[in-house]
Amino acid sequence: MSDTNKDDSTQATRSMWVSYPLFSADFLRSVPGAPTQFYFGLYRGTLDLAARRLQAQAEYVKKLSAIDQPGDALAAHNAFARETIESWFEEGRRLFNESQAFVTPSK
Hints:
Number of helices: 4
Order of helices and strands: HHHH
Number of strands: 0
Low-confidence stretches: none
Largest sheet: none
């Protein structure tokens, strides 16, 4: 495939996605505020959670790389698994509480 055809194909793919209405700012302006804020709040919260959990996982892997005893590795794994599960429950509660503001009617 020549570079010209490859460029045309890439440009066609880009224009397809740009013209898709869900990727348009005009589409977002037409959506009522509360549902949009609700979903973007959840989106932002889950990305925040993912970033924190990836950081915790990187720290865990770094810790594992310094361990030379199988028992210590197992203990580190158990601690990481416990912290991960606790974090998911805590974050789920936090996201739920934050999202209630958008679904509970104002007084």
